[in-house]
Specification:
Layout lengths: L8 H22 L6 E5 L5 E4 L6 E3 L2 E3 L5 H15 L2 H15 L10 H6 L2 H8 L2 H15 L2 E4 L2 E4 L8 H4 L1 E3 L6 H10 L3 H18 L9 E4 L6 E5 L11 H18 L2 H18 L21 H17 L3 H22 L28 H15 L8
Antiparallel strand pairs: 1-2, 3-4, 5-6, 7-8, 8-9
Helix pairs in contact: 1-2, 1-13, 2-3, 2-5, 2-14, 5-6, 6-8, 8-9, 8-10, 9-10, 10-11, 10-12, 11-12, 12-13, 12-14
Bound molecules: glycine.
Length: about 400
């Protein structure tokens, strides 16, 4: 085994415990949650659920992301199958995938990246069944069709039907983490237009959303003709000019994916710089506050989901980095984060149905402000599998 890949027995036992917990919790939950999909836990530890079919959209002035969580649940079932080899998880994943599949033509949201790269892509990878790859390809076509071209570049519009100007001119940093669906499709369909669309978005996001100090805006509005940034703003962070750590983590993950897909090292360098910013402001605790700039330092909540996403991104940087020393430093940053998540955040108590306590979905909207959140659990497991079973879960 490559020295870079070796794991101490303490870490191996710690990560195995987390994967065992996934297996036992999913096994219990599948029989009680019905046909809806979990998204955040309530204060009493129950999963709150919603149907897979709930799309994103505006209700008057209010925007709702809808159900962008449903693919993550399928991904967790597949992860449980890989870890336990118990067929029942595959059976459940198949049943769930039937409910998720209908969303692959959803024209309202960039989140079809999240939904299908966490479900259909690992499904095809784990089982070799190309039916799932074809579903992911349909979703990738839909995501590519969200590309808006301007005089100075092109970006993927994040929110809402493209006929709604509010969404059409906006893009969120989260979109960076939806790009792996496009990059996967470029290889699967041997169609470079997916890669071009993803890279165009990454280039414009770099210019429009990364600030000089290497923090990121949560979202921006572009002038649709010139492509200039009209304003930077936030939806789930503390303030328009603050740095929302989950967004920073999405950026780290997505720019690394862009480097992997294009072979361009400048995107890897950027991801590493964004990672340095994140690590510097997160400090020894390894789990960042929900917003780096919330001034209420003694009382502010921390977001375990941001840490899980960052850990997955750091592992990708480590895999890609041409310098062995740097690669090993990034891997160690990821493992330290996973250690803390396992030791201090894992919900070992049976009444709490999530895996990671203390995630934050949306503090400004008071949705899951201190909960397990579905994407936090998913990226935690994605990161653990990257360490424990490299190459088994995802093809990238
Ligand atoms: N929509 C992605 C997020 O809440 O982070």
């Amino acid at each position: 085994m490559d020295a870079l890949q070796s794991l101490t027995s303490t870490r191996h036992a710690r990560y195995t415990e987390a994967l065992d917990l996934l297996v036992s919790k999913l096994s219990e939950d599948e029989s009680i949650i019905g046909v809806e999909f979990p998204y955040v836990t309530a204060p009493d530890g129950r999963w709150l659920t919603m149907p897979a079919s709930v799309s994103a959209g505006y209700d008057g002035r209010a925007w709702s992301h809808g159900n962008w969580f449903c693919g993550f649940w399928v991904g967790l079932l597949l992860a449980a199958y890989l870890h336990s080899q118990e067929e029942k998880f595959l059976v459940w994943a198949r049943e769930r995938m039937r409910l998720v599949e209908a969303r692959c033509e959803d024209g309202n949201t960039h989140d079809i990246g999240f939904i299908f790269q966490s479900s259909a892509i690992p499904f095809a990878h784990v089982t070799g069944d190309t039916r799932y790859a074809e579903i992911a390809l349909r979703a990738a076509r839909r995501l590519r069709s969200r590309l808006i071209t301007t005089r100075s570049g092109a970006f993927i519009s994040s929110w809402g039907p493209l006929t709604d100007l509010r969404g059409r001119r906006s893009s969120a940093i989260d979109t960076m983490a939806n790009l792996p669906l496009l990059y996967w499709a470029a290889d699967y369909a041997d169609d470079g237009s997916f890669r071009l669309a993803g890279e165009a978005h990454a280039a414009m996001t770099w210019r429009g959303m990364v600030r000089e100090d290497l923090s990121t805006y949560h979202a921006v509005e572009y002038d649709l003709a010139s492509g200039d940034r009209v304003r930077g703003f936030t939806f789930q962070g503390y303030a328009d000019d603050s740095c929302w750590p989950r967004g920073q983590a999405w950026a780290i993950y997505g720019f690394t994916a862009t480097s992997r897909a294009t072979g361009r090292e400048n995107y890897l360098d950027l991801a590493a710089h964004l990672g340095d910013y994140y690590l510097h402001r997160t400090g020894e605790r390894c789990v960042p506050p929900w917003d780096f700039d919330d001034p209420d330092v003694p009382h502010r909540l921390h977001d375990s989901s941001a840490a899980a996403i960052a850990a997955a991104g750091f592992l990708d940087i480590a895999r890609l980095h041409p310098d062995k020393m740097a690669a090993s430093t990034w891997r160690e940053a990821a493992l330290r984060t996973l250690d803390v998540l396992c030791d201090d955040y894992l919900a070992r108590e049976g009444w709490h149905r999530g895996l990671l306590r203390h995630g934050v979905y949306s503090k400004p909207h008071n949705i899951g402000p201190d909960s397990a959140v579905m994407f936090g659990d998913y990226y935690f497991i994605e990161a653990l599998l990257k360490v424990m079973m490299p190459g088994s879960f995802l093809p990238f």
